[in-house]
C-alpha cells in the first residue's frame, strides 16, 4: 500500500470516526430527553387508571339542565318589572310528619291597634321549611299569628321572613350544605340524592339542581363585589388550568379553562376569584384585568403578555424555574441540575428568614442578600449554557430561566411581592382534586356558576372560616342586606350575625 492509499484510508477512518461521534452525541441527547420525559410522567402519574364515563358521571359538578333553567328564570323575573299575572304554583307535598319539628313563632311587634283597641288573635298562618344537618332532616315550623281589631275590622300578621328562594322549603342551612357538598366536597347530585334518601326524605336531582341554580343567581351580587375588591390590590397572582366542557349539540367535550386570580397571602384582602372561560385565549385575562395596573405574579404563558404593555408589571415565578431543574435531577441526577437547585434554595432560605418581617424590612434584606445571589446565579446560567449542547434537557432548563430573567428578580424590588406563584397554585388545587368525581362542565353557564360559588367557598377558607357556617349565615342575611352594605358579607369582612 503506497503513501496515497494510506492517506486516503486515514481520511476515511477520520470521517467515519467523526460520523460515529455525531451519532453517539445525537443518541445521547435523545436518551436524555426520553429519560427526562419519563421522569415527569412517573412523577405525575398517581397510579389510578382512567375510568370510562358512566351514567352517573354527567358533568363538572353534576350540573343538570334544570339548574341553568332555574337560574335563567330567576334572572328574567328580576329583570322584568312589568306587572304580570301570578303564576300558579304546583301543589307541594307536605313534609313527612315523622321528621322532628322546631316551632318558630312570629308575632307583630305590637298587638295594639292604631285606634287604641287591643287586637285579638283570630288564627295563624303556618309554613314549613326543610333543614338538614349531616344525616338528619328537621323541619322549621313557622307560625305567624293573625291579630284582628273588632272596631277597625283590620288584620295584622308578622311578615314572612325573606328567603334566598322565595316561597321555597329549604332553609339557608340546607342550601349551604348542598353547595358545600357539591362545590367543596365534589359530591355529584346523584350521590347527594342517595344520602338524603337514607336520611329519611328523597329529594329529586331536578329539585336540587333548581335550588343550586337559584342560589347561584342570588349570590352573584356578592361575587361581583368580591372581584371588585380583589382588583383594588396592587399585587396579584394568576394561573389557569384546563377543564373539559360539553360542547352544545354534539355531546362531545372540548377544553375550557378555569382562570384563578388571588391576592398575596400577606394582603389585607385575602381572596381568590375564579373565572371560567371557554378557551385559553389571552383575551380572557385582558378582560378580567381590564383597567388594573399592578404587579402580576404568573408563569411564562403568553396570554398574560399583552397586559405587560398596559401598565402591568410582570413578576416571574422562581418555583417554576426551580421545577425545571428538579425534573431534570430526577431524570439523571445531573451535577448541573443539583447545583442550580442548591443556588435557588439559598434564595428560599432568605425568604424563610424574612417570613415575619415587614414589607420594608423584607425589601432591605432582599437587596442586601438576594440581589447578589441572583446576579451570581445569572452569571452561572450564562457560563454553563455555553457548555451544554443545544436541544438537551439541561439546555432547556437553563433557557427557561434565562428567557424569564427580566421578570424573575423583580420580587426583590418590593417587600409585598412573593418569590413565586405557589399561593395561587394551591388555590386552584380544588378543581384538580374534584376531577375524580366529575368529567366535564355541563355548559358555559354551569361552569361560570361553579366558579362563582367556589370563589366564596375558597375565600372563606383563606380567611379561616368554616365555609358551611359562612354560607349559611350569608344566605340568611343576604335577602335583607342593603346593597350599599353588601361588602360586609364578603369573606374577609364577615362577622357572625350574633357577634355583630
UniProtKB/TrEMBL annotation:
- The record places domain Transposase TnpC homeodomain at 34-103
Give the Transposase IS66 C-terminal domain ranges.
456-492
| Region Disordered, annotated ranges | 77-101
What residue stretches are annotated with the Transposase IS66 central domain? Answer: 167-448
**InterPro entries registered for this protein in UniProt:** IS66_C (IPR039552), Transposase-related (IPR052344), Transposase_IS66_central (IPR004291), Transposase_TnpC_homeodom (IPR024463), Znf_dom_IS66 (IPR024474)
Q: Where is the Transposase IS66 zinc-finger binding domain?
A: 111-153
The UniProt entry, under Pfam families, shows:
DDE_Tnp_IS66, DDE_Tnp_IS66_C, LZ_Tnp_IS66, zf-IS66
Composition skew (Basic and acidic residues), residue ranges: 77-88
| PANTHER family (alphabetical) | BLL1576 PROTEIN (PTHR33678:SF1)
Q: What protein am I looking at?
A: IS66 family transposase
Organism per entry: Microbulbifer pacificus
